Amino acid sequence: MLSHNRPVFHFQVLTLVGLFLVIALPQVAMAQRRSGAPGLWLKAAYTYSNFTYKEVKAEQKGTLPGVQGELGLGLLGNLAISAGGQYQDDQMHFKGTSLTGDEVYGIANNQVSDLRGLAHLFYGPLIVSGGVGQRYWYNDLETAYRQRTTYNYIPVLVTLHTRSVYIKGEYDIWRGGTSKVHLSDLDSARQDIDFKQRKGGGLGVELGIIMPNALGMATTVFVSYHKWTIEASDKATGGTDADNELTLAASTTTIIQGGIGLNF
C-alpha cells in the first residue's frame, strides 16, 4: 500500500487575526449598533456532513466532521462585510474505475476546505450577499494516487430570517477549476497531470433555528444541502506516453450537513 504525505493546514495566523479584531474593534461595533448598522459578529460551529461524490464509473462516500466560522463587520447603513469558511477531514470509501482505467476499491483520506469573502446588504428580515469563494479538496486514494482539486466561484446568497428561524438559499457561479492528479504515485515514470475544469456550478439551501440566551450570545442548530455539478474537464496529456490524452469525467458532489454553533 502506498503512503502519501498529506498537507498540513495552519490556522494560527487566522486565529490571531480573529482575536485581534474581536478585542480591538468593540467600540466601533458598539457605535455602529447604535446607528442601526449590523455591527461586529462572530460565528463558530461544529459540523457533521454526509459526503457523496459520483462519476459515471466511480463513487466516493463517507461522513466528515468539521468546523466552520465567520467574522463580520458592519460598515455604513445596511452594508456589512465578512470573511469565513469551513474545514472537514476524514476517510471515505472509494469504489469504481480510476483515471487510469483500473478497478479500485479502498480507503481515501480527505481534506475539504471552503473559504469565502462576502458583502451583505440588510433589508429588514432579508439579507442579500455576494462575493468570492474557493473550494479545495485533497483526496488521497491510498491504493492509487493523490488528487488536489480547486474550484473558484462567486457565491450569491439570499437569507430570510426572524429572531428565531432563518432560511438561506445559495447559487454558486463558476469561475473555473483545476485538478492535479499525481499519477507519479503509481509509477515514477508517469507524469502528473493538471486538468482544467471550465464549466460547473453549485446550489444550496440551509435552514436554522436561533436560540438567544441571557449572555448576549445565541445557539444555532442548522441543516443544509449543497450540490456541485461539474462538467468533464479539458483533455490533458499524461501517463507514460506524451500522446496519451485523458479527461476527468463529469461529476456531482452532494453534501448533506448538520451543525450546532454559537453566534456572538
| Alpha carbon gyration radius | 21 Å
Low-confidence stretches: 5-37
Basic shape: elongated
Give the termini separation: 46 Å
**Largest sheet, spatial ordering of strands:** 1-2-3-4-5-6-7-9-10-13
Strand content: over 45%
Report mean pLDDT, rounded to a whole number.
86
H/E series? HHEEEEEEEEEEEEE
Our count of helices gives 2
Please summarize the sheet with the most strands. Answer: 10 strands, antiparallel, barrel
Based on DSSP secondary structure assignment, what is the total number of beta strands?
A: 13
Q: SS-based structural class?
A: mainly beta
Approximately how much helix is present in the residues? under 10%
Structural description of this entry:
By secondary structure, the chain is mainly beta. Helix content is 8%, strand content 66%. The protein has two helices and 13 strands, in the order ααβββββββββββββ. The strands form two sheets. It has a ten-stranded antiparallel beta barrel with strand order 1-2-3-4-5-6-7-9-10-13. The chain has a two-stranded antiparallel ribbon with strand order 11-12. Strand 11 (236-238) and strand 12 (241-246) form a beta hairpin. The longest helix is centred in the N-terminal third of the chain and has 13 residues, at 12-24. The model is unreliable at 5-37 (pLDDT under 50).
